[in-house]
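Box S2. Input/output pair 1.
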Amino acid sequence: MKHTSLREECCEANIALPRSGLVDLTFGNVSVFDPAAGLFAIKPSGVPYDALKPADIVLVDLEGKVVAGDLKPSSDTPTHRRLFRAFGDKGVRSIVHTHSRCAVAFAQAARELPCLGTTHADHFHGGVPVTRPMTPGEIQGDYEWATGGVIVECFAQTDPLSIPAVLVRGHGPFAWNVSAVKALESAQALEICADMALKTLALDPAAAPLDACLLDKHFLRKHGATAYYGQ
């Protein structure tokens, strides 16, 4: 089987999705990128997570050609491909898409997820952005590819690993990181922070964002050259 380890990493992460509580039914997928080979592994469309095997995982190159696998890849494959083309050289190796409920609430409200506390700051160096509205031409054309395009627009001036998630307006979250395990962690952190933010804003709709100095302290103690958190 071609690229066995890539398929295994992708399969394990997709099986972990329902255990994480981030997905309902089959509303989610994980992809894993191999930059040296120029291709990525992704969940096949509509296959139940508990039925997945590494051999079911589909391999796709950055031009969109299926290079291995007998099943159709996820319908979100063009979005993943667009993101790997833009973010792959910045260290992004895995993408997680879910319809996790609290993050979706912010996406449906077309609201950025604000950084209101240090839990958020431990994972995201600022608010998690929401994409602009898609045009009728984008929606009626190559919709999934255009979805990736509006995400890339959001990060034109931002390192995607400093804020490893986005809210697609009216749709839901995409998260990413340097491995499938880390990307799943980003997706979980996003949902946790969205849940906390919803509750905070219910108590105080005018709650202010976290002070910039405290935001920097919490993010940079865990990420980057000066990080000192953990072993």
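Box S3. Input/output pair 2.
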Amino acid sequence: MANTSDLKNGICIEFNNDLYSVVEFQHVKPGKGGAFVRTKLKNLKTGRVIANTFNAGVKINVVRMEKRQYQFLYKDDIGYNFMNLESFEQISIEEVLIENPKYLKEGQEVDILLHAETETPLSCELPPFVVMEIVYAEPGLKGDTANTALKQATTETGLVVNVPLFVNQGEKIKVDTRSGDYVERVK
């Protein structure tokens, strides 16, 4: 058992019979009254962020987590299937536990957060950037460069990304998984 002085960003706690990750915290010592800790907690099952205030010194239950590297294999009706890169064991994860499933490609490596005692997957984090191939893009018009013109292009996973006019079908691009924006062409 820990108390509120042990809170820090990224730590996982059990709160209201659910698992939460601390997104943000602030120790507050007002001039009058007792100290308290203002927090923002992210539910690891639903992804919803809530605000909560703990009185200083309150006991909290810290949950041990492990982050392991897995490789995405395929998607079926049960969920998304991954393989552990060390033990070659396979697990299936529901779509709600994956941050941005539209960026997943077969063979891609991801980090999966597991509950240490029960080995239950809690979330799946993609790398910040992924390389994708353009399967469909309208041809760019020559000379249309007066402003930073963009066109829509469809990637191999079905994701539609706004790209500059010079990007054509068959080329590979780097996409930011956090914002969904085009970053650069990849040779």
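Caption for Box S3: The chain has a mean pLDDT of 87. The chain has three domains: 2-62, 65-125, 129-186.
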